[in-house]
Amino acid sequence: MSMNMEAFVLGCGGMMPLPYRHLTSVLLRRDGDLFLFDCGEGTQVSLKRLNLKWKKIDAIFISHTHADHVTGLPGIMMLSSQVDRTEPLYIYGPPKVAEYVESSRKVLDMYINYPVIVKEITAPCIVHEGDGFYIRAFPLQHTKTCVGYTLEELDRPGEFNPEKAESLGIPRGPLWGRLQRGESVTLENGRTVEPGDVMGERRSGRKFSFVTDTQYIPSIADEVRGSDLLICEGMFDDSCAEQAKEKKHMTSRQAARIARDSNSARMAMIHYSPRYTDRELPVLLEQAREVFPAAELTRDRMVFDIPYVD
């Protein structure tokens, strides 16, 4: 069954919001599931401007507890209370996320009409699972504990071949459905037909990766390998390489190296330093494209469709 997957960039800025650039946040929609990655200041403004049916966000994934990645969280939690909701909201992130959520709820006297489940990540692991996919957290290297995330779909069954089924004498109906679900069936003549007799090769699912606030480390490429869309920090250009190193951030060229080494299909940069105006961002793109030609710049409220490859 095919499912739509889209990534909405709600904010592409780092450190401080600018009039035309909210702080880092990306919403991933996979059919009916909504996942938010980071929640900087201005997140709910972009959600409103995109007119998304977003109040039922399933889970929020926080990279780290620096202000420019979490200050939008209390507002999102309060706005989610404006609809009837029984499903829990899951919030994942490194240590201190629970304390931040708890103290915000207490100090702001938040009215929350749904369960909030906060889980802190202390080691690389699968943090969230659903029908046909899982989301994994892995370590980055920043000035405080920081994690990246990948959403990976499981392989899908191959395509069913009706002509083959008919030539094997399998009557149209429930037996076709059972074969498509991966069950073997026995015909009236006693012959057993395996799903592989009528199904094509298994087809791969999609992969989305979110990496921000880290210095360059080769292990990131292993984690995000084969991404259909890699959203990756590209905070500085080459002339600021020393500053990037000192602040444990990446240049756009280093982001491109991760995209190239991981065989990702597309890489879109995020979390730009406020030193670059929109007019100056193309320098980041030029340097990234020297290493990875499929590099792109994100802008606030940009939408990326993530189709199946086949």
Automatic annotation (TrEMBL):
Keyword field: Endonuclease, Hydrolase, Metal-binding, Nuclease, tRNA processing, Zinc
Domain of life of the native organism: Bacteria
InterPro entries attached to this UniProt entry: Metallo-B-lactamas, RibonucZ/Hydroxyglut_hydro, RNase_Z/BN
Binding site for Zn(2+) 2: D68, H69, D213, H271
EC numbers for this chain: 3.1.26.11
Residue stretches making up the Metallo-beta-lactamase domain: 22-197
UniProt enzyme class: hydrolase
Residues of the active site: D68 (proton acceptor)
Keyword Repeat set for record: no
Known cofactor(s): Zn(2+)
NCBIfam families per UniProt: PRK00055.1-3 (NF000801), RNase_Z (TIGR02651)
Known function: Zinc phosphodiesterase, which displays some tRNA 3'-processing endonuclease activity. Probably involved in tRNA maturation, by removing a 3'-trailer from precursor tRNA.
Family to which this protein belongs: Belongs to the RNase Z family.
Assembly description: Homodimer.
PANTHER family: ZINC PHOSPHODIESTERASE ELAC PROTEIN 1
Protein name per UniProt: Ribonuclease Z
Encoding gene per record: rnz
